[in-house]
Amino acid sequence: MTLEETEPNPTSDHLLDWLDDSVSFLPSFLDDPYNPGEINGSPWWDQNQDIGHDLINIGATTATSIDSPIVAAAAENTTNNGLIQSNSAIPNPSLPSDSSKKRKLSDEPDPKTSQSHQQKKNQGKKNSNKANNCNNGNNKEGRWAEQLLNPCATAITAGNLTRVQHLLYVLNELASSTGDANHRLADHGLRALTHHLSSSSASTGPVTFASTEPKFFQRSLLKFYEVSPWFAFPNNIANASILQILAQEPDKKRNLHILDIGVSHGVQWPTLLEALTRRPGGPPPLVKITVVAATAENNQIIDTPFSIGPPGHNFYSRLPGFAKSMNINLQINRLENHPLENLNAQIIEHLPGETLIICAQFRLHHLNHNTPDQRTEFLKVLRSLEPKGVILSENNMECSCSNCGDFATGFSRRVEYLWRFLDSTSSAFKGRESEERRVMEGEAAKALTNQGEMNEGKEKWCERMRSVGFMGEMFGEDAIDGARALLRKYDSNWEMRVEDQKDGCVGLWWKGQPVSFCSLWKLDIKVEES
Fold it and tell me: Segment Disordered: which positions (predicted)?
């Protein structure tokens, strides 16, 4: 079959077949996301009840068996006027004869699975790459997981319990930790919805940074940098910006002090150290990196995604030896359990005569931006340190916190973010299953349940930076050219956009949609004079 020939889409066909066979108890949820009148006016509905406990209990695995009595009860109760009888014994619903279409969590075939189903499953894997690059990109029709997850969140917000039951049942049938981006998004989304509905804060989620072995975590991180520009691109621009700032300093013999508020876990800095050796005049007499470690809360509802590594991992401890081999005098200071709001010149040991450069990447969106406005207050703290430059990189998306919209609005924004991550990692890993990919995706999926995901769009971030006394600085030619050259190593669906002549921001986009932005800031001289 040539590339030009039209191939069947096993994922879409699978979904449509399942829905057609299940029409006896599934509503037209794709046409009518919710009907608030179905439940809000019912005398038996208690808005404060823990419907997650009554609906579904995923437990340790997302893809609960179809024979689970709770899942069966959810489906059966749906056909009985939506009433819940938590303690009643309800028989399993009669499923379509081809109910084994549900994807397995493992790639190993089930010996009980029919031969025709196994062929269908293999065909789906064979075509996964094409699905990721075409109908699973920005074509909403191909992104069926969102068409189930978002209506479910809308139904939860509206209090439409019957619709919630329907959609959780379908999601439970289709979710899988393996397969294409849609199946994996359904898997992570189902976990998040179930967690939201449950009164218990404890849940067994996917593998994340904190739950991995240090060596495997390091390998996963390096592999991800190799195949995806998600973090490699901002880090490349940040390093080039540091060199740009140093080149503008008249005194080439000043010590360099970098305040590292990021998620690179140290892998960003060897490249910079090597570049410093090629700088005219050689490296600074002393390079000091102060690492502001993320506060570990031991709770994925609070931890910022990508910020907490496993216990025992400390890549920074290897950097001095690496620097010594290149005749660089490197000093590493690590600040543990210091909330960002409490930073000051004394804590970071900022000394007179140092060239202070602040590198803040994907951590500041965790600060509250409503009441109290911790975000603006922290930017004022950065301004008070009088740095020679601030490199700010952040997710370029709207906020998903409860103060900026209801649960359905926030959840849909988080799902959109995770879709881009999963879709891009499918391409990065060539559609192959990988433990390294799984841990990166598990960490990204924390955004679905994280209460601290208070992102803002690029424009709002720039407005905040200007309001506290910073002015945008254009990235130099070396930074732009280096970023473009780096991006050529990755999938062609990635692109760089120099988006704002006013503030000089550079954006990273995936399939025509924004992912993140990088910006460079200096002190506004006009503010200092006033």
Answer: 82-139
pLDDT for 27-46, tens place per residue?
333 334 334 444 344 333 34
How is the chain split into domains, by residue range?
Answer: 26-92+128-205+411-454, 213-397+455-529
Contact 99, 66 (CB under 8 A): yes
| The two structure tokens encoding residue 41 | 């006016």
Helix, strand, coil % over all residues of the chain, rounded to 5:
45, 10, 45
Q: 0.90 exceeded by the pTM?
A: no
416, 278 Cβ separation under 8 angstroms: no
Locate 192 and state its tokens: 């998040």
pLDDT tens column, 401-427: 878 889 999 999 999 999 999 999 999
CATH superfamily of 213-397+455-529: Vaccinia Virus protein VP39 (3.40.50.150)
Give 201-217 as a DSSP string: S-------GGGS-HHHH
Closest listed residue to residue 506, CA positions, set 491, 496, 514: 496
In the chain, the amino acid numbered 500 is D
Nearest-angstrom CA–CA distance, 366 and 306: 12
Q: Do the beta carbons of residue 112 and residue 104 sit within 8 Å? A: no
The structure tokens listed for 213 are: 């072995």
Place of tokens 């990088």: 518
